[in-house]
Every structure is written in C-alpha cells, then in structure tokens.
Amino acid sequence: MTRAASQTFVALTGGVGGAKLALGLANLLGERLTVVVNTGDDFEHLGLYISPDVDTALYTLAGVVNPLTGWGRRDETWTFMQALQELGGPTWFKLGDSDLATHVDRTRRLRSGATPTSTCTHLAARLGVAARVLPMSDRPVRTVVDTEEGTLAFQKYFVREQCRPVAKAIRFDGASAAKPTPQVIEALSAPGLAGVIVCPSNPWLSIDPILAIPGMREAVRASGVPVVAVSPIIAGKAVKGPTVKIMRELGLTTDNRAIADHYAGLIDGIVIDGSDADAVGGLPLPVTVTNTLMRTLDDKIALARDCLAFCSRLSARTPAPERRR
Ligand code: FO1
C-alpha cells in the first residue's frame, strides 16, 4: 500500500453544509474517513430520541438524504405527521415516515442500554455507510440559545422559531461533564492520521459544541497533523442557515477573518471561496482559495480533494512536533 492509501482523516461536522463536504471526503477516502458529529442539537421529542446532525451525516453519506432540505430522507411520505396534525399533536418538527423508523430504532436501542456510538455504528452499517460516523460524545450535551425573547432549547430556536429571536449567547449544557468517546480519541490518535478537516458547518452552533467537550480541542491539537477549516462564509453570506445572522448578533464582522479568529489556536489553515480571494492578505494563517460552494457531487469531491492537498502541503511545510501545542 502507498503512504497516501494508508492515510486517515477526521472531519468535524454538524448540519447540512458539513455533511456535503463529508460526502466529498467519503468519496475519496471511504473507510479511511472518520466523521465526528455534533450532538448538541439532539433532543427528546414525542417520546423519541432525535439526533438530527448524526442522521443528516448518515443519510447524506448513504445517498438517501432529501436533496431539497439536506436533512431527512429522500422520497419521504408524511402520513404520520398528517395523522398527528389531525389529532392536534405538535407538528412544528417534521418527522417523515421513513425517518421515523430511525428515531424509533435509535430510541429502542438507547433505552435497552446501547450507547449513542454503538447505535450510530449500527445505523451506519445498515445504511451501507463505509466512513466511520461517530457522535462527538456518548454523554448528553444540549445546545441552548439565550435570546432577547428568553432561553430556547436548540431545536425550538432553530426550527420552531426559525432562528428569528436575536441571539445573545450560546451555551452547551452538559458539556463540562461530557468527554470524547474512546472511538473519537482513537481516530484522532491513529498512526496514519494525516489531517483534521473542520467542515463548513456553523462554527457557533455546530462546531463549538464539539470543541466545548473537555479534552476534544486538546486531542485535535495533540494529533500533530494539520487542521484545516473550510469557511462557511462566501462573500459575506452563509450558503444556508443563520451563521451570518448570529455573527452580527454576537457583534462580529461577517467575513473569513472572523472565522479564522474564531478557530485561532485550533487550525493551521483556512479554505475560502474564490469570490473572497482579495481577502487572503488579511488572513493570519495559510489559505487555500477554491470553490467552496457545493452544488453538485463533483463540487463536493473537488473541495474535499483541495482540503486533503492543503493538509499535505501544510504537513510538508511544518514538521509535526512543531505543530503540536
Ligand atoms: N429542520 C427544519 O428546519 N425543520 C424541521 O421540521 C426539521 C425536522 C428534522 C427531522 C429530523 C432531522 O434529522 C432533522 C430535521 N431538521 C429539521 C433539521 C435539523 O433541525 C437541523 O438541520 C439541525 O439540527 C441543524 O444542523
């Protein structure tokens, strides 16, 4: 086997944008990719344990995600939701019929003592996902948004209120008592590890919960491999979701510099879109400029290839012990 063929990579992700890059990476790496997924968005709803970002990653990697929404399953039917509506039940969080099977099966497994990690591994195998998909922790972490209209649990803020309330602060309840799983630590300390990629997910809502777990940031840095982030900002806008709105509300400038500053001390390089090429000079670390807008599978694979090449360039530039902090 050549060196490149034995190299492994870890991607940190949450939400739809991150899953798109994970799919590109999975196309190039298959089982050499480990995807560490945010579980701060998890919640109990209708008596079921829902893990939206894990399912978005699984469905995307399995090729069964709804292409219109980026979450849930393609070719979905909604009989359950319609019946629930007729009964006067809560319908603000849409659970399609096939998707419901995932939540029922996950809940059943967790209630009989399985961990989120083993449940996720089971689902990944059944869905035919080659990449390793790992929840960030087996302990509960819940993202909570303090807004001008009060404190909201993540899905109530994100889905029920459509991110309309002005955010004042974002907290990750339970994070201080959580820890990375042995599987996550193993992936970050694998001898063949050649890079960590922070996907273009919302840094404040999707990546920060992962980094809030004591020992996670340290494990990423201790890996000694290049860590690169793909900026979710393109020409001052986010492709999807409330990233820019939240940045404004937190008093930040809505540009790649703010993303680089947010990840300072964690990343060795940043990938930005070609439309922001003139901003390169203002960025305080190595930059790759490419197309970061992922419309097609080819776009996703091309961006993934750029990320791997960037890791390789950074690795050649800086000997590993000097990158360890
Ligand atoms: N997002 C929505 O905007 N509306 C929904 O009704 C909704 C339902 C849903 C069901 C299952 C699932 O796995 C994801 C779902 N999402 C929905 C997406 C999810 O709320 C967010 O994309 C993430 O939590 C943010 O990354």
What is the compact description of this entry?
The protein is of the alpha/beta class. It is built from 14 helices and 14 strands.
* Helix share bin: 40-55%
> Would you give the CATH topology?
Rossmann fold
Elements, N to C (H/E): HEHEEEHHHHEEEHEHEHHEEEHHEEHH
Q: What average pLDDT do the residues reach?
A: 95
Q: Which residues form runs of ≥5 with pLDDT under 50?
A: none
CATH class: Alpha Beta
User: What summary fits the major beta sheet?
Assistant: 7 strands, parallel
Map the helices and strands.
Elements (H helix, E strand, L loop, with lengths): L2 H4 L1 E6 L1 H15 L3 E5 L5 E3 L2 E3 L1 H11 L16 H8 L10 H15 L4 H12 L4 E4 L6 E6 L2 E4 H7 L6 E7 L8 H7 L4 E6 L4 H9 L4 H7 L4 E4 L2 E2 L2 E2 L4 H7 L6 H7 L6 E5 L13 E4 L6 H21 L2 H4 L2
Parallel strand pairs: 1-2, 1-9, 2-5, 9-10, 10-13, 13-14
Antiparallel strand pairs: 3-4, 6-7, 6-8, 11-12
The protein binds ligand FO1.
Ligand FO1 binds next to α2, α3 and α7.
Give a description of the structure.
The chain is of the alpha/beta class and 325 residues long. It has one domain (3-69, 101-142, 179-323): CofD-like domains (Rossmann fold), CATH 3.40.50.10680. It is 41% helix and 19% strand. Strands 5-2-1-9-10-13-14 form a 7-stranded parallel β-sheet, with helices on both faces. The protein has a 3-stranded antiparallel β-sheet with strand order 7-6-8. A hairpin with a 2-residue loop joins strand 11 (233-234) and strand 12. The longest helix is centred in the last third of the chain and has 21 residues, at 297-317.
